[in-house]
Write a sequence for this structure.
């Protein structure tokens, strides 16, 4: 696959979106899932966001017509990222704190690296090996806390979040090479629209009790609007854009910032506790993520400075 031409300003804005806005979605989902069934919540969010994207695409005169292969690939990507990857995480938030979930998901770069080794034969460099060891250690400390494991449904929630992380990681590799709509906005629309339908079908099969927005609290309505506009349309478009412009490992570095944002917001707005062991685990885990990516970052910085230095 040939990488698309980069727009430096769009790349910076896109990274800002996946770093900071996505870190906030854990709080918004945690608030909304206290009143709404998880799959109904996620399905409504993505179906509405997908429809809005199609409307905006029409207004901007973006062609919505795609090939059968592209449609198939958007359905697969939508399932990996949204139907399973997001829907099950939202369900797990009923049993684990938003900051904890974000911190567990922060191990995604580690999983992406291991998947690239297993599926693509990519060698793991010495610095990355250190990162893997630190990452595994951090995860062990995180999920090994007795006060967390003792909570009802916590263990199941942790396991499901881990499988969601596998789904997201594989999806990142899949999207990087799949034949998808060339317009990132349209690509996002199809993924969200199809995932929204599948999530609502799952919710219906599970017998969830659906409610109209008129029955929701003002807080839940606000959270849903933020999830649709910023957490879905803005950020997921940025995510799809970056996956076609830069490597999956670099996109996964959002895991540096997401858990920190989520933990701070969860502590401030929801009074979620930040234990000493969680704090230590976060430092070790995020240090591991840094080691996984640091060598390439230094290489890129060296090339940049070499171009700027006067000869």
């Amino acid at each position: 696959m040939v990488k698309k031409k980069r727009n430096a300003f769009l790349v910076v804005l896109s990274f800002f979106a996946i770093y900071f806005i996505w870190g906030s979605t854990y709080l918004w989902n945690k608030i909304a899932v206290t009143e709404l069934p998880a799959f109904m919540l996620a399905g409504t969010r993505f179906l509405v966001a997908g429809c809005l994207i199609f409307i905006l695409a029409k207004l901007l005169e973006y062609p919505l017509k795609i090939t059968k292969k592209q449609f198939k690939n958007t359905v697969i990507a939508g399932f990996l990222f949204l139907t399973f990857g997001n829907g099950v995480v939202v369900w797990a938030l009923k049993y684990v704190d938003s900051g904890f979930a974000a911190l567990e998901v922060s191990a995604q770069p580690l999983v992406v690296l291991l998947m690239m080794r297993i599926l693509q034969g990519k060698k793991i460099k010495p610095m990355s090996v250190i990162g893997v060891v630190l990452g595994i250690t951090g995860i062990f400390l995180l999920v090994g806390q007795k006060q967390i494991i003792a909570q009802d449904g916590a263990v199941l929630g942790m396991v499901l979040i881990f499988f969601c992380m596998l789904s997201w990681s594989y999806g990142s590799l899949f999207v990087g090479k799949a034949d998808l709509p060339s317009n990132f906005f349209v690509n996002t629309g199809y993924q969200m629209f199809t995932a929204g339908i599948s999530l609502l079908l799952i919710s219906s099969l599970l017998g969830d009790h659906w409610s109209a927005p008129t029955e929701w609290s003002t807080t839940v309505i606000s959270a849903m609007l933020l999830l649709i506009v910023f957490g879905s349309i803005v950020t997921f478009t940025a995510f799809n854009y970056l996956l076609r412009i830069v490597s999956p490992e670099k996109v996964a570095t959002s895991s540096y910032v997401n858990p920190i944002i989520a933990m701070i917001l969860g502590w401030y707005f929801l009074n979620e506790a930040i234990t000493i062991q969680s704090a230590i685990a976060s430092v070790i885990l995020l240090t591991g993520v840094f080691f996984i990516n640091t060598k390439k970052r230094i290489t890129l910085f060296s090339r940049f400075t070499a171009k700027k230095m006067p000869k």
Remarks:
- The chain has one domain: 8-308.
- Residues 8-308 form one domain.
- The chain has a mean pLDDT of 86.
- The chain is about 75% helix and 0% strand.
